[in-house]
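User:
Care to share a sequence and structure tokens?

Assistant:
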Amino acid sequence: MASSDHIVLLDFLGSPFGMRVRLALAAKGIEYQIEEEDSTQSKSSLLLKLDTVHKKIPVLIHNGKPICESLIIVAYIDEKEFIDRIKLLEGELKSNPYFGGETLDFLDIAFLPLYYWFHTFETFGKFSIEAECPKLAAWGKRYGGGIRVRLSTSRSSAT
């Protein structure tokens, strides 16, 4: 984000999700204006106009363009640094099927649920994780789909 950009954060001071965005903005040294939402009142017309899907704060407005959902906003603020971090993580796979080597371990379990957000990150960040990090994308496809299927079948067979 350029210093000449107009950035507004629609937020409520007590929101932990808004705090996530405020921390990211502060870490990057980005100046912004805050529009405080009153959580005790009904939702403002501005919020309803900007976040037509969830109608929730925070909403970052960058040169008139609204970005919703705190994790998406943080990824947007990070711009392409996100890819560098994902590449670092991909490097830990080396030639192993799992982050822990030959067996599923803590990092696989901790990171796998985030695989389902890849499409969202790609859509809003306008990049391709598969093009940038092919081993990581293959890891997610290989294990993400299988675990989702096993979880859904084990849940339905337990009833």
In short: The mean pLDDT is 85. The chain has eight helices and four strands. The helical segments are 16-28, 45-50, 70-78, 81-93, 106-115, 118-125, 129-132, 134-157.
